[in-house]
C-alpha cells in the first residue's frame, strides 16, 4: 500500500485510531513504523471480517456453559483439581464436554452418601442447575458412545476412593488420640 | 535486581549526558552501528524516540526491531534500561 506514504500525518493518526492501534505522534522517525503497523492491520482486517461469525458462535456457546460451571467450582478440593484439567479440553471439544458433565453428575449421588456434613448442602443447588441444563439440551447427547473417561488422568472413582481412605485414616488416628488426651485431662 | 546486567546498572545510575548509543543495555557493537547509520548516534536520540513512542513497550520493541534488527532479549534489555532511566531522571 504505497498510498500510505502519500497520506498526511493526521490521516495516518486517524487510521491508527480506526484500527485501535495505540500510538504516539506521527513524526519523521515514527512514520515508517506506523505505516508498517497499518499495513499489517489492513491485511488482518480483510481476512478477519468473514470469521467473526464463527468466533461469535463459539463465544456464545462458551458463555452458556460457563454460567453452569460456576456453582460447581466451589466444590471439594479433590474434584476441583480434575475439573481444572478438563476445562481447557472442554473448550476444544464442545460435545464431549457435555457427556463428561453428565458422567460427573452420575457420580455425584455416590459422593453424597459419605460422612461429610457440609458437602450435601453445597451439592443441592448445583444438581438442580445441572438437571435443568440437561433438560434444555437434549440434542447434544448424541456423542454418548465416545469415552469421556479418557479426558481424565485419574478416574473419578479412584479419586473418591483415595479421599475416603484418607478420611477414614485420619478418623482412626484422631479417635486413637482422644483416649490418651482424656487420661491426661483427669490428672 | 540481580537479573539486570552491569551495563544496565551503569546506565541507570547517572544522567546519560553524551553517552554513545552503545552504552544502552542490549545494544552492542553491531546494533549500535546500525542505529548510528540511521542517525541515532547518541543514547539521548534513542531516548527521544522512546519518549515519542510514549514509552510504550510494544511500540518501542517494534521500532527497535525494524531499525536495527535487535532480537527479543535485546529489545527487552534496551526497553528496561530506558524505562528505568526515565523513572529515575525524567
How does this model look, in words?
The complex is a heterodimer of chains A (187) and B (90). Chain A is built from 8 helices and no strands. Chain A has helices at 3-6, 9-18, 28-48, 52-73, 77-92, 94-112, 118-136, 156-186. In chain A, helix 2 runs parallel beside helix 3. Chain A has a domain at 7-42: Orthogonal Bundle (Transcription Termination Factor Rho, Rna-binding Domain, Chain A, Domain 1). Chain B has 90 residues and is mainly alpha-helical. Chain B has one domain (6-89): Orthogonal Bundle (DNA polymerase, domain 1). Chain B is 62% helix and 0% strand. Chain B has helices spanning 6-12, 29-37, 43-52, 57-68, 72-89. The relative contact order of chain B is 0.19. The A-B interface holds A 22-25, 27, 29-30, 32-33, 36-37 and B 49, 52-54, 56, 58-59, 62-63, 66.
How large is the count of helical segments of chain A? 8
Question: Regarding quaternary structure, how should these chains be classified?
Answer: heterodimer
Uncertain ranges of chain A: 48-52, 73-98, 100-104, 107-116
Q: From the helix content, strand content and strand pairing of chain B, which structural class follows?
A: mainly alpha
What characteristics describe this protein?
heterodimer, A: 187 residues, mainly alpha, Transcription Termination Factor Rho, Rna-binding Domain, Chain A, Domain 1, 8 helices, rod-shaped, B: 90 residues, DNA polymerase, domain 1, 62% helix, nucleus (chain B), DNA-binding (chain B), cytoplasm (chain B), BAF (chain B)
Summarize the structure.
The complex is a heterodimer of chains A (187) and B (90). Helices cover 76% and strands 0% of the residues of chain A. Chain A has 8 helices and no strands.
Amino acid at each position: 500500500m504505497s498510498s500510505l506514504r502519500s497520506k498526511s500525518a493526521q490521516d495516518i493518526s486517524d487510521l491508527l485510531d480506526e484500527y485501535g492501534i495505540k500510538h504516539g505522534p506521527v513524526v519523521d522517525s515514527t512514520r515508517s513504523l506506523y505505516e508498517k503497523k497499518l499495513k499489517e492491520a489492513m491485511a488482518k482486517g480483510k481476512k478477519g471480517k468473514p470469521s467473526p461469525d464463527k468466533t461469535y458462535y463459539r463465544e456464545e456457546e462458551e458463555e452458556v456453559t460457563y454460567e453452569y460451571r460456576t456453582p460447581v467450582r466451589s466444590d471439594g478440593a479433590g474434584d476441583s483439581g480434575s475439573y481444572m484439567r478438563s476445562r481447557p479440553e472442554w473448550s476444544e471439544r464442545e460435545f464431549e464436554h457435555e457427556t463428561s458433565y453428565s458422567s460427573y453428575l452420575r457420580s455425584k449421588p455416590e459422593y453424597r452418601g459419605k460422612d461429610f456434613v457440609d458437602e450435601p448442602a453445597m451439592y443441592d443447588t448445583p444438581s438442580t442447575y445441572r438437571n435443568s441444563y440437561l433438560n434444555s439440551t437434549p440434542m447434544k447427547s448424541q456423542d454418548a458412545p465416545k469415552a469421556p473417561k479418557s479426558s481424565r488422568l485419574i478416574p473419578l472413582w479412584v479419586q473418591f476412593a483415595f479421599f475416603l481412605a484418607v478420611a477414614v485414616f485420619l478418623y482412626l488416628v484422631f479417635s486413637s488420640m482422644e483416649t490418651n488426651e482424656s487420661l491426661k485431662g483427669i490428672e | 535486581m540481580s537479573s539486570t546486567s552491569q551495563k544496565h546498572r551503569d546506565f541507570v545510575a547517572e544522567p546519560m549526558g553524551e553517552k554513545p548509543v552503545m552504552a544502552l543495555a542490549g545494544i552492542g557493537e553491531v546494533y549500535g552501528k546500525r542505529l548510528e547509520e540511521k542517525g541515532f548516534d547518541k543514547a539521548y536520540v534513542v531516548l527521544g524516540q522512546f519518549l515519542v513512542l510514549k514509552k510504550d513497550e510494544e511500540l518501542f520493541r517494534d521500532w527497535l526491531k525494524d531499525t536495527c534488527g535487535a532480537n527479543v532479549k535485546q529489545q527487552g534489555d534496551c526497553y528496561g534500561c530506558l524505562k528505568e532511566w526515565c523513572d529515575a531522571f525524567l
